[in-house]
Amino acid sequence: MIEFNGVSLRYDDSRPPELADIDLSVDEGELALVVGRTGVGKSTLLGAINGLVPHFTGGRLSGRVVVGGLDTRDHPPRELAEVVGRVGQDPVAGFVADTVEEELAYGMEQLGVVSATMRKRVEETLDLLGVAELRSRSLATLSGGQQQRVAIGAALVTAPSVLVLDEPTSALDPGASEEVLAAVTRLVHDLGTTVVMAEHRLERAVQYADSVIVLPGDGVVRSGDPAQLMIDSPVAPPVVELGRLCGWSPLPLSVRDARRAARDLRPRLGEVPTRRREAGEAVLRARGVTVTYRERVAVRDIDLDLAAGTVTALMGRNGSGKSSLLWALQGSGRRAAGSVLVGGKETAGRDTAQRAGSVGLVPQTAADLLYLETVGEECAVSGPGARELLERLAPGIDDAQNPRDLSEGQRLSLVLAIQLAAGPKVLLLDEPTRGLDYAAKHRLAEQLDHLARAGHAVLVATHDVEFVAGSADRVVVLADGDVIADGPTADVVASSPIFAPQVAKVLAPVPLLTVPDVAVALGGSR
Ligand SMILES: Nc1ncnc2c1ncn2[C@@H]1O[C@H](COP(=O)(O)OP(=O)(O)OP(=O)(O)O)[C@@H](O)[C@H]1O
Ligand SMILES: Nc1ncnc2c1ncn2[C@@H]1O[C@H](COP(=O)(O)OP(=O)(O)OP(=O)(O)O)[C@@H](O)[C@H]1O
Hints:
The protein is α/β, with parallel strands linked by helices. It folds into three domains: about 1-235, Rossmann fold, CATH 3.40.50; about 235-270 and about 500-525, no CATH class; about 310-335 and about 350-495, Rossmann fold (3-Layer(aba) Sandwich). It is built from 22 helices and 20 strands. The chain is globular, with a radius of gyration of 23 Å.
């Protein structure tokens, strides 16, 4: 269905090619998962399938890409759109209509689908993606995860024979992610749709893949059987890491496989390691915080203290109020009632400069904070240490590069470096692991640990259960604007069907959360 013959792509002659003489084929009715480190060229590979690369991105492409019999050199992206549906990394950038229903109908209108069929497909898609109650909402007012579901719906609704999904679950809560991937798998199995998907959170996706395409770097690709390629893939989900640690063969790709392999492991586990950060005094004190959008209450009368020296995770379904709470705490966001004190001072009504050393927020759409022409300039204006931090978080970015041309993960790393360099007392992060590979997440966790140990308080809104397991002391769960759980990480997540990380599911009832924890517990038993 998709053939790459001798495909090379280069954005910039002074750098090595992003894709170097690639041969690749994906069969009809196959789900191929594209994996690799941040900035390695996954989006570039996906973009070449529907002609977006190089038509819209620039760069020089050589070789041949044929999709559903169409050579992408002879057919512009507009014509390829009849065969290929695509969901990009930034759903908002792809929206063309104002409301959810209009967005879903748009693609079919372009293809001239008759209105009765159109209506039926829109209804089916609203149900499939769980967005029926949002049907008449304006796209701009949806939460990040709600927008991502609509974007996926808009790509599915025309039933294209090829679907290209670039990190389709990056903003989805764990439950929604499972539902969306199950829906995609159903299209593959029942309709023979061909799917090529890039996803950093392999724990969510690898068990659905028929084949894996690994980009190890240097522009080459390797493709084939998922379990086989996971043996030495540069990125791997926790169950695979656990399998590598324990020497299991074949490697497990799902929790279910790993549970079987782990039967003999539980008795060998020694002392369960405990986390060791000491909580200090509360540096942020919020009382009665309420956020409303007209009659909709997004955050309801929340009290929250954040202690110095701690990392707290804020979790909860898409639309449960996490971003609204973060902005209200930071002070510039909407707040219908309540007070938020940092170091005894109210955060509302202050300007950016006054807030700088006290409270910082890294937003979900991190690019909003970038406005200069080069990476070097952005780092230079944001104070000492930003450049070094960036190098730690995402090594190898050129100072002269325009932030616009960075990969998603690289751009986020830049914004993080800028905010971290300002060293605010309280750091609020909205979905900071979107688009980050495992190594980058690990470095981010180290950075947050470093900040916490230096007496800062960190609050991270996230759907990334694995990141939470490895980095947070405490977890606060929101549902429909209320706090419904608040406690030490292991207590809140270990027994939760939704928030438990893979290792906790594999080893239950032993309350271990991460592969490094298991390594310690195994060492202790010898
Ligand atoms: N339009 C462009 N112009 C110049 N360089 C680009 C452009 N788009 C991407 N790049 C560079 O090409 C490389 C590959 O980018 P790409 O977006 O394909 O990576 P990725 O693997 O999808 O990364 P991520 O996991 O962060 O999404 C990166 O180093 C990026 O900075
Ligand atoms: N400007 C707005 N106008 C109307 N409703 C809004 C607006 N912004 C957010 N909402 C609604 O408020 C609720 C909370 O949104 P919020 O963005 O805080 O959720 P979230 O927990 O951060 O979601 P996600 O996990 O998807 O990012 C959602 O139902 C959302 O649709």
